Amino acid sequence: MSYGYTDEELEQLKKRKLERMLAEAEERRRAAEEEAAREAQRQAILRVILTPEARERLANVKLVKPELARAVEDYLINMYTSGQLKDVIDDDTLRDILATLDSKTRRELRIRVRRKGE
Hints:
The chain has 118 residues and is mainly α. Helices cover 74% and strands 0% of the residues. It has helices at 7-49, 52-64, 66-81, 91-105. It is flat.
């Protein structure tokens, strides 16, 4: 079933589809490279501003609570890039920051049980 297309028209349709697929693949590759470069830059900044112990703690937190680790990374990088960070962050300071941000981002969960007739 050719839907009324000639062989030449079908070849052109195939060619356009292939070109479109190649362009989309190239765009995805480029976006992945840009994301990898941004992540490498973030990690380089974190290596500068965190002690090895603090980096290890942040890596452990990232395994359990990735959203909290990302929030802490963003917070520290913003402080560093704006010039507000004067000293290297050690493990104790990082623990304090983690506790503060965790308490701000944690949502209270309430479960109410309603029985029939209440």
